[in-house]
Amino acid sequence: MTAILYSVGAVCVRRKFVVVAVWLVAAIALVAISHRMGDNTNDNLSLPGTNSEKATDTLKKSFPAQANGTSPIVLHAPSGKLTDSKYSGAVNQAAADVAKAPNVASVVNPLTPQGASALSKDQATGYLSVSLSVNPGSLSVADAQRIIDAANPAKAAGLEVETGGQLGQKVSKPSTESSELIGILVAMVILTLTFGTAVAMLVPIVTAIFALASTLAVIRMLGHVATVPTVAPTLATMIGLGVGIDYALFIVTRHLRGLRDGLPMDESIARAVATSGGAVFFAGGTVTIALVSLAVAAIPLVTTLGLMAGVAVVIAVLAALTLLPAELAILGPHINSLRVRTPPTEEQARHGLWAKWAAEIARFPVVAGLAALAILIPLMIPLLSLTLGQQDTAALSTSTTARRAYDLISKNFGPGVNGPLLIAVTLGSPASSPSDPRLQTLQKDISATSGVAAVTPVQLDQAGTSAYFNTISKSGPAETATTKLVDTLRTSVIPEAEKGNDLRAYVGGSTAAYDDLASKIASKLPLQIIVVIALSFLLLILAFRTVVIPAQAAVMNLLSIGAAYGVLTAVFQYGWLSGVIGLSGPVPIVSYVPLFMFAILFGLSMDYEVFLVSQIEEHVHAGEDNRSSVVSGLVTSARVITAAALIMVFVFGSFVLNGDPTVKQFGVGLAVAVILDATVVRCLLVPALMVLMGKLNWYFPRPLERLVPRISIEGGEYFEQRDRAAAGEPELVEVGAKASDGG
Fold first, then answer.
1. Closest Cα partner for 662 from 719, 592, 610?
2. How far apart are alpha carbons 449 and 640 in whole angstroms?
3. Residue 332 backbone class (left: φ over 0; alpha: ψ -120 to 50; beta: rest)
4. Are the C-beta atoms of residues 682 and 612 closer than 8 Å to each other?
């Protein structure tokens, strides 16, 4: 791999203008084509085999509009009643216009007998119940807006018009531009201080922006051939921006070191691509594999999110290995222009703050290890009460129409109306009317269940074999009480209603579907953790030819991610510091956030593990004893790891400003996990443990020696062999073997 990457770097240096031109043309073309195609995200929550999916399947043939659920367009009179002559005509016109809009199957008007339940007691508030002919998740933002705009006659008459349900959520996604900008600005400051020059700082920023623009364009185009969730571009932005800047940071740092060591400009760039580029390739590969491994959960939503984030990582790696060296070659010696500070030399670093820190850890490894655990273990405690929930519209900003519609309905009709439970029924022998005893008994039993506020009349198809009705909970869609009600209906109420008859009933609707998603993820999370830990173990064995360090890394990963989960639980589920991040109180932790976080953080923690241990290993091979190697390796790597982690923390943390609570959860969880992993774990606990383990760190059973191929991540042996050959010195057999295997 080292030889291949060296050749790639050399070609990019020689053809620097061609490489930059290709990237520029490709990025512009991708962005132009994707914008012409438009956004086409899809929040379709398909969960094969679940109770909610069976409810949808039951109604698809006889009641296709109901199978797709309903969304309310809320109409509120600032004074008077909707039934007043000055408003009633506008309400009726709005209902008629919405019914004619594309993708609308039917509309229930609150001023008609059929829609009487959608009119408040004071008659000042009502809602059009909009059923769609397509799955709401498949609508584009423009499609949803066209349906909403059809209700403009009501707005023109002076009524407040707000849209809830999936229609409202589709047009209530906050933009992320401010988050991206803040992340980039902070990264620019950190990079300037790390490199010491403003010109060097620009290289990772430009590379990451090119990669991010290309990534978002590719994801936008993939949305027309695959089911891409609405949150996918935002997650891809977070991950692509973070890893894109970090990967470029590693390579530019190695290039600047090569220049200080006296290497010619072109040779320094090519070697940086071959050495640090190898670590970038390995790190990017592990992150991508971890994200793709989300397919193990067999949940379409989670699988697609993983694949889209994987696209961001792959493009970031490609940009770091091709575009970056071309940019460095064009800059040449100007990379040291606009200097703002002079980074410490290696000699100064050996006597600096990190050297003192490393020496103290080596002197008191037990104390250092216990101190790290004293930080991590208390942070993990809230994890014990982690409960997976669903997206909560009540936590959205009041500037969004979905939140305002939610509040109006909760105030005038009760919170449960925001997420009705759909009871889908199949009958073995046809019913002659909705008053069939089997249907009436089922409806009566559900109505009498604790937590149920109301049930709607039974609707029966012409064949008499399918029926449905809605159940309104007394609690909001995202509340724990509603989740318990869904479970009670399925396990206690409905089975009793089936006894002695041929009726089968299922609880569906978006609220029940998200409960099913949480249950499915909870059951798959342990398997996902096992797969990822096993994968990290195997990859680190290949990288370092030891079984001890991979075992340490597995435990370290669990500690740092567990602590991050604990903080996530405390901030969102408990509501601690919720006001600081723009929330009014506790919100449920969206079920797929911990699963997705684990895959991302596994890959990122592997970055820091490989970078730290490879530096320690380099000093071991140079003949230093274990203790000195740990100290030297930490001194060499700590500054770069800290800079890379700070960039990640601010990029992820900036997304707390996003109005979507789900995005806030990703921002907080990922930022906390990275800062804990890069500081407490990699710069305190890991070196302390490696000092204590001594030579045992490099234990490798003899049977594995023959089975495991030799791989050199940064290719040091390859260049040792190459430099010896250039100097006319005899080639060392072991070095030659390693270089052949690794390069």
1. 592
2. 60
3. left
4. yes
Contact, 568 vs 672, CB < 8 A?
Answer: yes
State which CATH number among 2.30.110.10, 1.20.1640.10, 3.40.220.10, 3.40.50.2300 fits the domain covering 352-385+523-702: 1.20.1640.10
What is the rounded CA–CA span in Å between residue 52 and residue 517?
10
Tokens 């002695």 correspond to what residue?
500
Average pLDDT over residues 128-133: 88
Q: Which residues pair with 162 in a beta bridge?
A: 74
User: What number of helices (H) and strands (E) belong to the chain?
Assistant: 30, 11
Query: Quick check: do 68-170 and 420-508 share a fold?
Result: yes
| Confidence (pLDDT) at 740 | 35
What pairs with residue 127 in β-bridges?
74
As to burial, measured by CB atoms within 10 angstroms (0-12 exposed, 13-18 middle, 19+ buried), residue 259 is middle
- Residues 6 or more apart whose Cβ sits within 8 Å of residue 85: none
Distance separating the N- and C-terminal Cα atoms of the chain: 5
Which is more confidently placed, 126 or 301? 126
Q: Which residues of 559-572 are buried (b: 16+ CB within 10 A; e: fewer)?
A: bbbbbbbbbbbbbb
Q: What is the pLDDT of residue 202?
A: 92
Question: 727, 734 in Cβ contact below 8 A?
Answer: no
Prediction pTM value? 0.83
Structure tokens at 190: 């950190």
| pLDDT single digits (tens) 288-328 | 888 888 887 778 888 888 899 999 999 999 999 999 999 99
* Neighbour-count burial for 218-255, b at 16+ CB within 10 Å, e otherwise: bbbbbbeeebbbbbbbbbbbbbbbbbbbbbbbbbbbbb
Furthest-apart CA pair in the chain: how many Å?
100
- Confidence class for position 101, pLDDT limits 50, 70, 90: very high
Instruction: Tell whether domain 420-508 is in CATH 3.30.70.1430.
Output: yes
Domain boundaries 68-170, CATH class: alpha beta
42 within 8 A of 138, measured Cβ to Cβ: yes
Other beta carbons within 10 Å of 491: 10
Residue ranges per domain, the chain? 68-170, 352-385+523-702, 420-508, 709-743
